[in-house]
Amino acid sequence: MSHLVDAKSMLDTRGLYEGPTVHGVNPLLLIEKIIRERIFESLYWKEHCFGLNAATLLDRAVQLTYIGGQFANQRPTPFLCLAFKLLQLQPPKEIVLFYLSQTEFKYLRALGAFYARLTFHHVEVYKTLEPYLSDYRKLKVRGQAGWRIECMDEFIDDLLTKDRVCDIALPRIPSRAQLEDLEELEPREDVLGSEGEDTETEGEGDD
């Protein structure tokens, strides 16, 4: 139970949190309280997330076979549990970019993208995630309504444009058009027009 106590002790419920913050708050608070509690109570968290660090979490992440938020009786997916563990660990940006760069393990890339969207500065979010709009591999998604198939580029687009993904309310970010008007971003090149782009065909075996 020590890992559960350690995780809960990090929560900023009394304004006493003094660790590194993300968007000005304790990073664990980026996940709503009710979902945090379900993660703490889940079998996957208790059995597979104890003692993980940014390196050993990689071993768990490459075993993922689907993404999603909650399913069945509002049970958190392993994907969501590992995302929460990343918020607890707060790995260096270089580690997150390493997750994203792995072409063989598409669910590891999806996990890295989700974490980057939750924690990176808004300009970094666009610069980091937009290159993966050219990744058209299929992802299995598990949710309350059951299973569905979604392509990686759809998932990335959802992260950039929607308020909630995988049942989690994402931090608000300006639209790309607003950032272009402020000259914080250059107009985006059409990835479809770039010949020779890596369309990430590796790692399709679980489809």
Automatic annotation (TrEMBL):
Q: Subcellular localization, per the record? A: Nucleus
Query: What biological processes does GO assign it?
Result: mRNA splicing, via spliceosome
Which segments carry the region annotation Disordered? 184-207
**What cellular-component terms does GO give this entry?**
spliceosomal complex
> What's this protein's name?
Pre-mRNA-splicing factor 38
What family is it from?
Belongs to the PRP38 family.
Organism's domain of life? Eukaryota
Q: Where is the composition biased (Acidic residues)?
A: 195-207
